[in-house]
Amino acid sequence: MISSKQKLPRHIAVIMDGNGRWATSKGLSRSEGHRAGADSIDRLMEISLELGLEAISLYAFSTENWKRPVTEIRSIFNLLVEFIDSRLEGISKKGVRILHSGSRKRLSSKVLSKIDSAIEITQKNRKLTVNFCVNYGSQEELLNAFSKLSEERRKKKIPIQKPISTKELEKYLYTYPLPPVDLLIRTAGERRLSNFLLWQSAYAELFFTDTLWPDFGEKDLKEALDWYGRRTRKFGGLENG
After folding, report:
1. Which sites bind substrate (predicted)?
2. Which of 18, 41, 75, 167 lies at 20 to 30 Å from 68 by C-alpha?
3. CA-to-CA dists, residue 95 to 46, 122, 167, 208, angstroms
4. How confident is the model over 32-79, as pLDDT tens digits?
5. pLDDT tens digits, 129-188
């Protein structure tokens, strides 16, 4: 049970795993599993709004997911377009801001247009930020950030010997200006980060649950938040200073 005095994480990241296993267990296609997973996103947004959470990042499609069958990839992106078309108006009215973290390469013009439209329409909303990580890979993000930072320094003729600061680099991450991840949740029993928000999760608390993503609901989120509330976060220091 979450108390009114409990400190909530500013930024929650979620690796939404288990759609395929959920579908298989019910004799359904993987595409139906992804559809059920989209319904879980709806529930997560509603609960997050009720609790007053600030930001959530969702691992929707990784740079490694291109290795999956073409039919499944097509189904995922068709579902993304459908999700935006059917829910954007309601999402915006509730004060939700949509962001995108990930590479724009390989994404179709239709998908990019839908994402850009969602970002533009919701840009002034501040009740909750939902960051969809689509075509996202943390290692690629870091390489891209270093490349852009190096080019910017070259243009400004900044000496190569000058040390790079954390804040300087973070301005070139896909997630800027979101705060660091406080709590990272992974569903379906897996215990790895899978190239997701590695920099941003440097001091995140990691919560793993066996619950498959389509079954993830209010009880599961509150369990994770309650667990987070009991953690002592020292950031490399000592508890009492």
Report:
1. 18-22, 30, 34, 62-64, 66, 68, 186, 192-194
2. 41
3. 11, 8, 28, 29
4. 999 999 999 999 999 999 999 999 999 999 999 999 999 999 999 999
5. 999 999 999 999 999 999 999 999 999 999 988 999 999 999 999 999 999 999 999 999
pLDDT single digits (tens) 214-233: 999 999 999 999 999 999 87
Residues 6+ apart with CB under 8 A from 137: 62, 63, 64, 102, 103, 195
pTM above 0.90, yes or no: yes
Bridge-based pairing state of the strands 183-186 and 205-208:
parallel
Q: Domains for the chain: give ranges and CATH numbers.
A: 11-138+179-226 (3.40.1180.10)
Q: Which residues are catalytic, by number?
A: 17, 65
Phi, psi of 141 (to 5 degrees): -60, -45
Q: How far is CA 25 from CA 32, 60, 190, 210, 237, in A?
A: 12, 21, 17, 14, 45
**b/e for 44-80, b at 16 or more Cβ within 10 A?**
bbebbeeeebbbbbbbbbbbebeeeeeebeebbbebb
Return phi, psi of residue 121, to 5°: -65, -35
